[in-house]
Amino acid sequence: MVAILARTPARVGESFSGCHPVVPMARAPLSRTSVRDALDSAVIAIAAAGSDTPRLDAELLLAAAMGVDRAVLIADPGRGIEPAAARAFGDAARRRVQREPVAYILGAKGFRRLELAVDARVLVPRPETEHLVEAALGLPHGARVADVGTGSGAVALALADERPDLHVVGTDSSPGALAVARANAARLGLAVELLEGDLLEPVDGPLDAVVSNPPYVAAGERLPAEVGHEPVEALLGGADGLDVYRRLVPATAASGAAFAAFEVGEGQAGAVEALLRAAGFGALERVRDLAGIERVVVGRR
C-alpha cells in the first residue's frame, strides 16, 4: 500500500525535507447484504410479478445460490451473503420475476423420493402426478408397465424406484425429453427402458399396464404464466383436451394391458372413464388429488 505524504503547503524556496509519512488507515470491508434484506427485496419483486408463493420462491433460490439448506436462512436471517452468491441470487430472482418456473432456474425438482433434473425440454413434475404413481404401486409382481409421455421420466423412474420388480418402459415423441429422462435414469441408477415414438408405437410385445399423464389442456384455457415456459406439445390436448385420450385408450386396449391409469384435467374424468368403459375396462375408479379434484382415472379388465 502506498503511504500518503502530508505537510503544510511549501513556500517558495522551502524544501520538502520536512515531510513525514502518514500511516494509511485500513479500509473497512464493504458491508455484505444480509439474508433478511436480500429476501425482503426479492419477495416484493416476485410477488409483484404475480407469483402465489413469493417467499418460498425467494428462499429456494437464495439457498441454492448460497449452497446451504433453506433452514439456514430461516435460522440466521442476519447472515451476510458473499458477493458471488448475491450476484447469482440476483440473476435467479430476475428470472423468477419473468415467471420462469423455479424448477427450471434450479435445474431440479423433487418427485416422490427422487430428485429429478429438469429443464425447458420437459414439463415440471407436479405433486398431483404422484397420485398416478400411487395408483400403479399395487400392480402384480413382475408386471410390465409403460409410461406414455414420460417427459423427465418422473412416473417411470418413481415406479422403478418404489417397485424394482416391475419392468418399466417409458415412451415419448420428443428426443429432448428422452435425453432428460435418460440422464435422470443414469444418475439415479434406475433401470427403465426409454423409447422414442408416438404413444405405444415403439413398444414391442404385450403389456400388463399402461400409465400416462398426457397433454390434456383444452385450447383457449387460461393458464398460469409459468406454464408459458413449458413445452407446448406436452400440454395441449386439442379443442376439449381429450384428443390424446381418444388415441391412447384404444392403443392401451390393443396392447393387452389389464390395467390403465391416466391423469386428467379438472372436469375430464367422466369423459375419460367413458372411453375406458367403451374399450372394455369395466372396473373403473376415480382418484381425487389433495384439492379434491378428480385427477386420475383407473380402469381394470
> Could you name the CATH class of the largest domain?
Alpha Beta
The SS-based structural class is alpha/beta
* Number of continuous helical runs: 10
Beta-strand share of residues: 15-25%
Instruction: Identify the CATH homologous superfamily of the largest domain.
Output: Vaccinia Virus protein VP39
Major sheet strand order: 7-6-5-8-9-11-10
Helix content: 25-40%
Alpha-carbon Rg, integer: 28 Å
Distance between the termini: 84 Å
Order of helices and strands: EEHHHHHEEHEHEHEEHEHEE
Write down the overall geometry. elongated
Number of strands: 11
CATH level-two architecture of the largest domain: 3-Layer(aba) Sandwich
Q: Which blocks of ≥5 consecutive residues have pLDDT under 50?
A: 1-30
- What name does CATH use for the topology of the largest domain? Rossmann fold
Number of domain modules: 2
Give the biggest beta sheet. 7 strands, mixed
Overview features:
301 residues, alpha/beta, Rossmann fold, 2 domains, two-stranded antiparallel sheet, 10 helices, disordered N terminus
Describe the structure.
The chain contains ten helices and eleven strands. The chain is of the alpha/beta class. The chain has two domains: 64 residues; 181 residues, Vaccinia Virus protein VP39 (Rossmann fold, 3-Layer(aba) Sandwich), CATH 3.40.50. A seven-stranded mixed beta sheet has the order 7-6-5-8-9-11-10, with helices on both faces. α7 links the parallel β5 and β6. α1 packs across α2 and α1 packs parallel to α4.
